[in-house]
Design a protein that fits this description.
The protein has a domain of 145 residues: P-loop containing nucleotide triphosphate hydrolases (Rossmann fold, 3-Layer(aba) Sandwich), CATH 3.40.50. Helices cover 34% and strands 27% of the residues. It contains 7 helices and 10 strands. The strands form 2 sheets. Strands 6-7-8-3-9-10 form a 6-stranded mixed beta sheet, with helices on both faces. The radius of gyration is 18 Å and the shape is globular. The two termini are 30 Å apart. It comes from Mycolicibacterium agri (Mycobacterium agri).
Length: 247
């Protein structure tokens, strides 16, 4: 688990007339065993926020601090695509991001492959796997480094509905079992409500417009009436903002 503090975060791209504000004076804290989803219309700064939190990008101004028990936190990242090396086996892709290739490390990688139902696929190559299986490997790989916080950028957006639903359930099981902090960017409000105990709603211009606690009991399903009501409440937030709707 990690503690994340964001103080007056501002990010802009370009200069002069071409300047675009991606994030505007964002202030928030995330701590403990949290699953936080970030939602909002296209261009509201969701991915920019994740890139800054993960260290891929830097802010124009403001500060981000991510710690675990007073030390810099270890972070993992899951992208929209699995980004597996096609010439390496599944297990070698897992081992590629590790500090060593010891037997203990290999057993840890195998453990996470089993958690995503791919325990027998270690010798396979990415081209032999479906897109959903490849994304499972990407999730297992990220967790196998044992990060304190995991950043996920729309990891299920390119998958069919049935595969995405299965992976959401597997992701939630891993999160519940490991106690990690997860920050999850999605364009799908239903997905956010199903997975999260907190939803950050961003508006155009990169402004944090709402911070919603989701107190529904787990497990959840998008077909549940309480999930549907919460989803409607989030959509209402978008309507009040005059923002473009998300799915």
């Amino acid at each position: 688990m990690a503690d994340i503090t964001i103080d007056h975060l501002h990010k802009e791209f370009g200069l002069g007339a071409d300047k675009v504000v991606a994030l505007e004076d964002v202030n928030l804290s995330i701590g403990g065993h949290a699953f936080v989803s970030v939602v909002g219309p296209s261009g509201c700064g969701k991915s920019t926020l994740l890139n800054i939190l993960s260290g891929i990008d830097v802010p124009t101004s403001g500060r981000v601090t991510i710690t675990q028990d007073g030390r810099p936190a270890r972070a993992g990242y899951v992208f929209q695509a699995a980004r597996l090396l096609p010439w390496r086996s599944v297990m070698d892709n897992m081992l590629f991001v590790q500090k060593d290739r010891s037997e203990a490390t290999r057993k840890r990688c195998q453990h996470y492959l089993e958690m995503v139902q791919l325990g027998d696929k270690g010798s396979k190559y990415p081209g032999e796997l479906s897109g959903g299986m490849q994304q499972r490997v990407g999730i297992a790989r990220a967790f196998s480094t044992e990060p304190d916080v995991l950043f996920m950028d729309e990891p299920f957006s390119h998958l069919d509905a049935i595969t995405a639903r299965t992976l959401r359930k597997e992701l939630h099981t891993i999160w519940a079992d490991t106690g990690k902090t997860v920050v999850f960017v999605t364009h799908d409000v239903g997905e956010a409500v199903e997975l999260s105990n907190r939803i950050l709603v961003f508006a155009k211009g990169g402004r944090l417009a709402d911070d919603i606690d989701v107190k529904l009991p787990f497990p959840r399903d998008v077909a549940d009436s309480e999930v549907a009501l919460m989803k409607a409440d989030v959509f209402k937030t978008f309507e009040n903002l005059g923002a473009m709707a998300v799915t």
